[in-house]
Amino acid sequence: MYKNIRGLIMKIYLKIIIALILTIIILCFIVYGVSNKKIETNITIDEIEIYSGEELNQNKEIITYHSGENNFSGEYQESISEEDSQVQKEVNEESKDTLAQSSIPKQLSSTTPFYIKINNSQNVVTIYSKDSEGNYTVPYKAMICSIGDATPAAGKMYKVTSYKKRWNALQGNVYGQYATQIVGNILFHSVPYTAKSNSALEYWEYDKLGTAASLGCVRLTVEDAKWIYDNIVQGTIVEFYEDANPGPLR
Asked: In the chain, fewer beta carbons within 10 Å around the N or the C end?
C-alpha cells in the first residue's frame, strides 16, 4: 500500500516538474520573441539614421514637387505643416520684424556673418559676407533658385527666424529638405519630395530651377538648401530685389 502511495506521489511530482519545465520553455519563447522584435526595431531605426548620415555627407541633389502635376492654380501651397503650427506661431512673432529696404544701412543691418539677396527676376540667390569695414559687399556664394507668385516683392526685407527643419512637411503630402524660415510660410528648402526618401525625386521639377516654379518658397538644390540650413543663423537679413543682371557670381 505504501508503495502505491509512494508511486502516486512520485507521478504527481513528475507531472509538476514537467509542467514547470514546459512553463519555463514557453516563457523563454515569449521573452525571446519580444526581445527579438525590439532588436529588429532598433536595427531599423539605426539603419534610417545611418542612411540619413550618408545623405548629409554626399549632399545629393534630391528633388521633387507636390504630386507630380504641373498645377500652380493655388490648390497646393508650400507651407509649414500643421504639426509645426505651434512652432510657426512662435517664429512668426519673430518674423514680424519686417524691414523697409531703405531703413537698414548694410554695414549696420546685422551682426550675422552673411547677408542674402534674392533676385526675383533672375531666380538667383547671392550670399554676401563682410568686407574689412564691416559692409556686406563681398560676394561669397551664388545659388540658382525657383521663386513663385507669393514670394515677397522686390524691396522687401526680412530677418531669418529660428525655425529650421531637416525634413519639413508641406501641404500636399510632400516634404522639403533643409527648411529655413524667412517669414510666415516663405521658406528656403529643397525642391519638394513625395516622401522622406532619396528615391522620391521629382527630377522634372528640379529641371525648372532658375525659373519661377514654386508658389512662394525659395526652392534650392539640396546642397544649397543644406548650406543655408547649416550656415545662416537667426537674424540674417534677406533682401528681395529685381535686376536684369543675375548677380556678381552668375
From this structure: N
Q: List residues with catalytic annotation.
A: 189, 217
- In sequence order, what are the beta bridge partners of 237? 159
Cα–Cα distance measured from residue 60 to residue 72, given in angstroms and rounded to the nearest whole number: 27
Q: How far apart are the two ends of the chain, measured CA to CA in Å?
A: 108
pTM over 0.85: no
Amino acid at 99: L
Question: Using an 8 Å Cβ cutoff, are 223 and 61 in contact?
Answer: yes
Q: Same structural domain for residues 145 and 22?
A: no
16, 31, 64 from 27: Cα distances, Å = 16, 6, 49
If asked whether residues 113 and 205 sit together in one domain, one would say: yes
Domain assignment of residue 28, given as a range: 1-58
Residue 72 lies in a domain: no
Q: Is residue 121 part of a domain?
A: yes
Specify the number of domains making up the chain: 2
**550675422: which residue's cell?**
112
CA distance linking residue 82 with residue 181, whole number of Å:
15
Query: Tens digits of per-residue pLDDT, 191-206?
Result: 888 899 888 877 788 8
* Cα separation values, 119 from 124, 125, 172, 238, Å: 5, 6, 27, 11
In the chain, DSSP finds a helix count (H) and a strand count (E) of 4, 10
Q: Which residues pair with 127 in a beta bridge?
A: 116, 141
